[in-house]
Structures are given as structure tokens and as C-alpha cells.
Amino acid sequence: MSTLYVNNIEEKDSGSKITLGNTLKVDSIEPKTTGGVINAKGMVTQVKSGSLTTQSVAISNSWYDLVTLNITPLSVNSKILIMGSVQFDTSSSSSSAVGNIRVMRGGTNIGYSSYLSESARLRWSFPYQYLDSPNSASQQTYILQIIEDGGTTVVNQTYGITTLTLMEIGG
After folding, report:
1. What does the buried/exposed string (b/e) look like for 25-39 if buried means 16 or more CB atoms within 10 Å of the residue's CB?
2. C-alpha closest to that of 115 among 130, 125, 129
3. What is the Cα–Cα distance from 169 to 81, expressed in whole angstroms?
4. If you ran DSSP here, which 8-state letter would residue 42 be given?
5. Residues 6+ apart with CB under 8 A from 89
6. Beta strand 56-58 with 121-132: parallel, antiparallel or unpaired?
7. Choices 3.10.180.10, 1.20.1560.10, 1.25.40.340, 2.60.120.1340: CATH for 44-169
8. Taking the model in full, what pTM does it have?
9. CA dihedral 169, 140, 61, 118 (to 10 degrees)
10. CA 21 to CA 107: how far, in whole Å?
11. Residues 93-126: tens digit of each pLDDT
């Protein structure tokens, strides 16, 4: 087995790649220039997180924005892992309350779930997770929303925090 020792490896032509056929082990990797980007396929390259800690009321038959986050993927091949939870209480004058929670990317609904309370009151922690493929290296805006279809939903009523976390997975 041979060993190669070098102080520096650079591209011959700008924009070309350096490809190694086997595993390269290093202690650290840094971009060549300030503001440079290292995109590690399959690795978490950035994380954005937001939360709603105040009490909010979802208006019946109208989507209510809970948390909004922006992220700019480093590559068009990156995936965005979306996760978090919504803390809410429902109340209804009838015997049940029905509502929906969704995550929007721009104007596109990318994740949608419904809830149903079989009683007039329900306290719930609703976790969610979705792997998105925006296919873009432009800024993406994600909005966590809720709607109530027959009663009142109060988010973070007595306890809890509603959260939205975006994790870019390098592609």
C-alpha cells in the first residue's frame, strides 16, 4: 500500500472537481475562499429553527400562520427535513372538533394532516415530519399553518411551544 502526502490539492481548471476513488480521511475541511461552501452529500449542512410561544387562536375556515422560516439550500440536489410539533386545545359547542395542519413551501402545500376530537374538548401535542425536495438553490419559505373547521382551536393555550425546524441534507 502506498501513502501520498501533500500540503495542498487544487483544481487545475476552475469549476472542475477533484474525485477520489476510495475513502479520504481528514481532520477538517475548509472552503478555499471566505464565503465558500462545502456541500457534504447526505450530511446536515444547515439548520433553521423557529417557534411560537404566545397563545394564538385559529380562526375558523381560514388558515392561520403559526411559524415562518426561510432557508437557502446550498445545492439544487439538497433535501429539506421538516419537523416539529403543534401544541393545541380544541373546544366545540358540538360533540366534536375537526381541523387541519399543513406546511407550505411558497404557495405549495407540501404536508397536510387532519385532526378530529371525538369530544367537545381535546388537548394535543401533534408532531410532524416530512422530507422535502425543493429542487432549487434559491431561498425557500416554509410556513406552518392551522385551520379549525367547526369550533375553536387555541395554540399553546396553557403549556407547550409550537416549533418548526428545517434541516438541509446535502445532495
Report:
1. eeeeeeeeeeeeeee
2. 125
3. 7
4. T
5. 121, 122, 123, 124, 153, 154, 157, 158
6. unpaired
7. 2.60.120.1340
8. 0.76
9. 10
10. 42
11. 666 667 788 999 999 999 888 776 666 566 778 8
